[in-house]
Write a structure and sequence with these properties.
Length: about 325
């Protein structure tokens, strides 16, 4: 979204030999997302046009994409199907933002937001809906919007309504929700992620493990996969620059400005090492999407394509 250890990390990663299909490597499907092209909003003059994103993500060697912020890509399924198909692309998931810890009062508004995106996601043949909790401080301005910790009642709201969301989305659209721990939200650190997992029904709620966000918040992705493997339904592959992260923590920098500072970096220069993450995921013996996301909003429009090509080549060296 270039630490001193980058050379050691590179050596460790590139020493991994590609996996054979029988080892389970073929069950991890690699993709990318608008986020890796500096896209955070449906419309923003600093972002690349959606046509350029589709051209470049296909040209980087990816077959799978996410929808990104609703409205960035065409929302007419017929148009989007044509545009993706002629570039050899398929959609793995849509993304929604929720503030379910606020309770029943926000349900109707939340469902209105979710239903449009879920319908498009279903129409595109995808099976997952990535659910990102609302930020407790603004990702652009850093303005504190609410306390950074939840009360016991808010935790009950969050877990029970997320289960309801999982049930409704599955019954109405045939999709599985995967909740995305995220910096500057209430599902962030190992403690809060574990509390959330322990408080929700595994048949209704799975996790989208974003390796970069989890490291940003102090978590160990391999440990989480090994401990809660049955709850991992989706992966976002991302790394953080430890030196910049240390500065971010020291100055309590909000997530948006931290990204502009370069806290999310190009693999394999940061942490966590993605080879061990992929190895741990393979051991789960399930089908998983692993979508590359390197937060870098805002960015020069010519910056993403070379990074995407290098990242895809690097992941191939990890057997993915």
């Amino acid at each position: 979204m270039t630490p001193p250890s980058a050379s050691r990390t590179l050596a460790a990663m590139t020493s991994l030999s590609p996996q054979s299909p029988s080892s389970g490597a073929s069950r991890i499907r690699i993709g990318s997302a608008p986020d890796s092209w500096g896209v955070w909003f449906p419309e923003d003059p600093v972002q690349v046009p959606w046509q350029r994103f589709l051209d470049e993500v296909a040209g980087s060697g990816y077959e799978w994409i996410e929808l990104g912020p609703y409205g960035y890509l065409p929302t007419d399924p017929a148009v989007l199907t044509e545009e993706t198909a002629r570039r050899g692309l398929k959609v793995s998931a849509g993304t929604v933002f929720t503030g379910l810890h606020h309770g029943e009062a926000v349900w109707d508004k939340t469902w209105e937001h979710v239903s449009d995106i879920a319908a498009l996601t279903q129409a595109m043949g995808a099976e997952h809906l990535v659910v990102i909790p609302s930020f407790w401080r603004d990702d652009k301005t850093g303005e504190v919007l609410e306390p950074d910790t939840l009360t016991a009642e808010q935790w009950r709201n969050l877990t029970s309504l997320t289960e309801r969301l999982g049930r409704e989305v599955r019954e109405r659209y045939g999709l599985s929700i995967v909740v995305h721990p995220h910096a500057d939200t209430h599902i962030d650190s190992e403690e809060n992620v574990v509390r959330f997992l322990d408080g929700t029904d595994s048949s209704l709620v799975s996790l989208c493990l974003d390796t970069g966000h989890y490291a940003y918040c102090g978590g160990d992705s391999v440990k989480l996969i090994e401990t809660y493997g049955e709850r991992i339904g989706y992966l976002h592959l991302k790394q953080v620059d430890p030196e910049i992260l240390a500065d971010v923590r020291a100055n309590a920098t909000p997530f948006g400005p931290a990204v502009a500072q370069g806290v999310m970096c190009e693999p394999p220069a940061g942490v966590p090492a993605l080879g061990p993450v992929l190895d741990a995921a393979r051991k789960l013996d399930v089908d998983l999407f692993a979508i590359v996301e390197q937060d870098m909003y805002p960015c020069d429009p010519d910056k993403p394509l070379p990074i995407a090509r290098r990242t895809r080549a690097f992941l191939r060296s990890c057997g993915a």
